[in-house]
């Protein structure tokens, strides 16, 4: 017995909603990244010697070329360049600030090489080391690192999820959603690596960008782990407006959970409700929902969109 067809109006509404979600520009995100880069550049010019700055620039160039090779599938060649950058930093006679600054990025790069080489435990260890280097940058010299630390914690959770450690990942990812939305330090998933001082504040654009990264990692979770994510998200107090970040996180998680259980009507309803209010956007998460809409729906629903049945 075939499943009842889905309401065409619901399918159309979901498609239009996701199209709107993908229509926002990325200028705000680029601006936020440029602002952080400018702060780091100013610190390097102010605090480091000329020779230290030139050395860090050389290590950065080698590291980035290695990462580009890894992304292109040339993992051995890319890993060799990352190892060369590590050897250069290890031999360098530089001050502590210069070393920790360079090492915070190099540890993350090594984590990516481990990840691409199917060494998940080593990848997570390198990312945790990078998180701790960022903590030292903040506590000792006041660098803005909160966004980087959340990014690294998200990547570590994604690595664990892709290594089938779904329960552990779901706990961390739910904590990160709560941290991004509220800045409540109770939700930082690595209390042993907490600041001795205090975090730098996250701007609104940074929060939406980080949520997008976290939701991308959530999409890697097994269906049975998704319920643990939504259960850990806070409920909206009576009489208060729903928190837009938490609302989208819950909506996205319930959408992919519904899709996994083949409750396509619920999936479409969540897709319809998902787009964030302008000017905010979640492009990675939106693309993921579009991919599920295009590839995982019954053949009768593809025909509604004009695609041939399969």
What is the CATH homology-level superfamily of the largest domain?
Answer: Tetratricopeptide repeat domain
Give the count of helical stretches. Answer: 14
Q: Tell me the CATH architecture of the largest domain.
A: Alpha Horseshoe
Number of domains: 2
Structural class: mainly alpha
Instruction: Give a short account of the largest sheet.
Output: none
The radius of gyration is: 21 Å
**CATH domain class of the largest domain:** Mainly Alpha
| β-sheet strand percentage | under 5%
Helix content: over 70%
CATH topology of the largest domain: Serine Threonine Protein Phosphatase 5, Tetratricopeptide repeat
- The succession of helices and strands, N to C, reads HHHHHHHHHHHHHH
Q: Could you tell me the number of beta strands?
A: 0
What gap, in angstroms, lies between the N and C termini? 17 Å
State the shape. Answer: globular
Low-confidence stretches: 302-310
Q: Give the overall average pLDDT.
A: 89
């Amino acid at each position: 017995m075939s499943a009842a067809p889905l309401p065409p109006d619901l399918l159309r509404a979901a498609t239009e909603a996701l199209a709107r979600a993908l229509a926002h520009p990325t200028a705000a995100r680029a601006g936020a990244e440029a602002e952080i880069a400018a702060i780091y550049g100013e610190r390097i010019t102010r605090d480091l010697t000329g020779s230290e700055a030139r050395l860090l620039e050389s290590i950065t160039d080698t590291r980035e070329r290695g990462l580009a090779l890894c992304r292109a599938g040339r993992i051995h060649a890319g890993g060799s360049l990352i190892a060369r950058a590590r050897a250069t930093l290890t031999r360098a006679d530089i001050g502590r600030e210069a070393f920790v600054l360079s090492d915070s990025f190099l540890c993350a790069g090594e984590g990516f090489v481990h990840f691409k080489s199917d060494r998940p435990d080593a990848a997570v260890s390198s990312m945790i080391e990078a998180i701790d280097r960022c903590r030292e940058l903040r506590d000792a010299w006041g660098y803005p690192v909160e966004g980087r630390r959340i990014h690294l914690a998200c990547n570590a959770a994604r690595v664990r999820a892709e290594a089938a450690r779904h329960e552990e990942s779901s706990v961390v990812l739910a904590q990160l959603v709560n941290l991004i939305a509220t800045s409540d330090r109770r939700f930082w998933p690595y209390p042993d690596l907490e600041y001795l001082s205090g975090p730098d504040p996250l701007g609104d654009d940074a929060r939406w960008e980080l949520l997008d990264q976290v939701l991308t990692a959530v999409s890697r979770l097994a269906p049975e782990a998704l319920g643990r994510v939504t259960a850990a998200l806070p409920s909206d107090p009576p009489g208060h407006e729903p928190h837009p970040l938490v609302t989208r996180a819950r909506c996205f998680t319930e959408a992919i959970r519904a899709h996994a259980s083949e409750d396509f009507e619920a999936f479409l309803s969540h897709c319809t409700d998902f787009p964030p209010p302008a000017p905010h956007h979640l492009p990675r998460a939106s693309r993921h929902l579009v991919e599920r809409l295009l590839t995982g729906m019954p053949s009768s629903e593809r025909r509604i969109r004009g695609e041939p049945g399969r």
